User: Which sequence fits this backbone?
């Protein structure tokens, strides 16, 4: 580890939300733990959120102060349903529409903060046309062999639903995530 990166922490800037779908995610985490012993997300990750930007910085307080000055408005966001990234470790997630308010607010966050990051984790951020807004439900301890049974138990998650994007979270992460700042949207 070089000396510069050794003292930098990893942070994510994300949208927080509330609504029935928020409660359904928490319910899904309980079902996954009880029925399948899948608990990595519930135990190691912050409240359900949509990550906009993630990287390494030592200027998180400065980033927080800059974001707090911006007048963000609450907005609604629709989910068309669940998706899966079929990697070695599958990732079950809620997909989100790429609506104009989400894209504009995400771009405002990126433009305001990106120059304060020493290193950006590109799998989380790219230009808007490639960005996949998502909220992970299960990852790390999710197994392909359980998928059919999981989908049966998660039928309540398949309907189109809206959430109210009402906060910006600044999350510190390493092996676990911790929300260190919350900014309420107007």
Assistant:
């Amino acid at each position: 580890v070089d000396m510069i990166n050794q003292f930098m922490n990893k942070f994510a800037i994300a949208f927080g939300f509330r609504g029935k779908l928020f409660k359904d995610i928490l319910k899904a985490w309980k079902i996954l733990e009880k029925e399948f012993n899948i608990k990595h997300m519930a135990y190691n990750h912050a409240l359900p959120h949509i990550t906009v930007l993630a990287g390494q910085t030592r200027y998180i307080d400065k980033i927080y102060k800059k974001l707090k000055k911006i007048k963000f408005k609450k907005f609604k966001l629709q989910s068309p349903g669940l998706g899966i990234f079929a990697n070695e470790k599958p990732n079950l997630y809620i997909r989100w529409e790429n609506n104009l308010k989400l894209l504009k607010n995400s771009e405002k966050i990126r433009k305001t903060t990106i120059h304060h990051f020493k290193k950006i984790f590109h799998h989380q951020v790219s230009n808007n046309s490639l960005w996949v807004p998502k909220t992970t439900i299960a990852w790390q301890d999710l197994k392909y062999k359980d998928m059919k049974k999981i989908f049966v138990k998660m039928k309540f998650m398949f309907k189109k639903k809206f959430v109210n994007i009402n906060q910006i979270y600044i999350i510190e992460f390493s092996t676990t995530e911790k929300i260190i700042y919350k900014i309420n949207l107007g």
Summary: Helices lie at 3-6, 20-36, 40-44, 60-69, 100-113, 147-153. The beta strands are 9-18, 49-57, 75-79, 81-85, 91-95, 119-120, 134-138, 161-173, 177-184. DSSP finds six helices and nine strands in the chain. Residues 20-36 form the longest helix (17 residues).
